[in-house]
Amino acid sequence: MKKDLTSIADLSKQEILDLLHEAGALKAEISRQGVVPLARGKMGVLIFEKPSLRTRVTFERALHQLGATSTYLSPSDVGLGVRESVPDVARNLSRWVNCIIARVFEHEKITQLAENATIPVINALSDLEHPCQILADLLTIVDHRGSLEGVTVAWTGDGNNVCHSLMLAAATVGFNLNVATPKGFEPAPAITEQTRKLSEKSGAKIRLTYDPCEAVAEADFIYTDVWASMGQENEAEQRRQIFRPYQVNRQLLSRAKPETKVLHCLPAHRGEEITDEVLDGPQSVVLDQAENRLHIQRAILARLLRNG
């Protein structure tokens, strides 16, 4: 692996598959031993500009289970790019700790941290991508299907950061993806073009549509996310009206195969992008996704800290 994980595109197909395999191996080993000291004596720092439940808890727990320690820095502790420049933060932390796990608003801050740090930088969420989430999703798909080969995933909703990473993962690994968004809310053109180029090599079929029913028709997994992300609160009401036809509900599920599973990266806005009936229903695997954040993040940290 490269020094950093800033994007799914930082990984080759084989590196993604290796991470999924290592996640499973570490899960089994830690269930037996409690701790696998692959990173004993090392420390990770979590710089979070956004609130978090799954990301913070799973990264801290993963570090501890690898024998490392962690420290959390809130927005008021750092003031990333305001109180102190991003390059200066990266250079200072490189002298004290062994990796930086950053959850930020602007992806440029992830890029600046990686460019100026001599230690690994992990993108724990930015406005452009959410690579750790998608790796956990791939692990969930493998848990339920046995492999990624021949899988079709349908995305319905906003062409956001999670969608971007899912597109890049599908194009890199070679599984199929149907993305259904309203007009004006498509994935970023640069991500779409990057996906197209990767798909030419992998053979993945990535299709963009405005019709959620068309997207889910042959899908093995249906994936959705909130319609208004953090920082878009002033658009929330407008988005509710535009995105209503993209809600994952019983009617949309009836257009898919009976065995189709439902994914959501959480937190969910119940009654908006997904109904309670579906989120809590037998086809939902969202808690498996949440658990797999821990397992995949152990694998990511083990790879990066082992090399550092």
Automatic annotation (TrEMBL):
<dbReference type="GO" id="GO:0004585">
    <property type="term" value="F:ornithine carbamoyltransferase activity"/>
</dbReference>
<dbReference type="GO" id="GO:0019240">
    <property type="term" value="P:citrulline biosynthetic process"/>
</dbReference>
<feature type="domain" description="Aspartate/ornithine carbamoyltransferase carbamoyl-P binding">
    <location>
        <begin position="3"/>
        <end position="141"/>
    </location>
</feature>
<feature type="binding site">
    <location>
        <begin position="229"/>
        <end position="230"/>
    </location>
    <ligand>
        <name>L-ornithine</name>
    </ligand>
</feature>
<dbReference type="InterPro" id="IPR006131">
    <property type="entry name" value="Asp_carbamoyltransf_Asp/Orn-bd"/>
</dbReference>
<keyword id="KW-0808">Transferase</keyword>
<dbReference type="Pfam" id="PF00185">
    <property type="entry name" value="OTCace"/>
</dbReference>
<feature type="binding site">
    <location>
        <position position="103"/>
    </location>
    <ligand>
        <name>carbamoyl phosphate</name>
    </ligand>
</feature>
<feature type="binding site">
    <location>
        <begin position="130"/>
        <end position="133"/>
    </location>
    <ligand>
        <name>carbamoyl phosphate</name>
    </ligand>
</feature>
<comment type="similarity">
    <text>Belongs to the aspartate/ornithine carbamoyltransferase superfamily. OTCase family.</text>
</comment>
<feature type="binding site">
    <location>
        <position position="225"/>
    </location>
    <ligand>
        <name>L-ornithine</name>
    </ligand>
</feature>
<dbReference type="InterPro" id="IPR024904">
    <property type="entry name" value="OTCase_ArgI"/>
</dbReference>
<feature type="binding site">
    <location>
        <position position="293"/>
    </location>
    <ligand>
        <name>carbamoyl phosphate</name>
    </ligand>
</feature>
<dbReference type="GO" id="GO:0005737">
    <property type="term" value="C:cytoplasm"/>
</dbReference>
<dbReference type="InterPro" id="IPR006130">
    <property type="entry name" value="Asp/Orn_carbamoylTrfase"/>
</dbReference>
<keyword id="KW-0963">Cytoplasm</keyword>
<dbReference type="Pfam" id="PF02729">
    <property type="entry name" value="OTCace_N"/>
</dbReference>
<feature type="binding site">
    <location>
        <position position="161"/>
    </location>
    <ligand>
        <name>L-ornithine</name>
    </ligand>
</feature>
<feature type="binding site">
    <location>
        <begin position="265"/>
        <end position="266"/>
    </location>
    <ligand>
        <name>carbamoyl phosphate</name>
    </ligand>
</feature>
<dbReference type="GO" id="GO:0042450">
    <property type="term" value="P:L-arginine biosynthetic process via ornithine"/>
</dbReference>
<comment type="pathway">
    <text>Amino-acid biosynthesis; L-arginine biosynthesis; L-arginine from L-ornithine and carbamoyl phosphate: step 1/3.</text>
</comment>
<dbReference type="InterPro" id="IPR002292">
    <property type="entry name" value="Orn/put_carbamltrans"/>
</dbReference>
<dbReference type="GO" id="GO:0016597">
    <property type="term" value="F:amino acid binding"/>
</dbReference>
<protein>
    <recommendedName>
        <fullName>Ornithine carbamoyltransferase</fullName>
        <ecNumber>2.1.3.3</ecNumber>
    </recommendedName>
</protein>
<dbReference type="InterPro" id="IPR036901">
    <property type="entry name" value="Asp/Orn_carbamoylTrfase_sf"/>
</dbReference>
<dbReference type="InterPro" id="IPR006132">
    <property type="entry name" value="Asp/Orn_carbamoyltranf_P-bd"/>
</dbReference>
<feature type="domain" description="Aspartate/ornithine carbamoyltransferase Asp/Orn-binding">
    <location>
        <begin position="149"/>
        <end position="303"/>
    </location>
</feature>
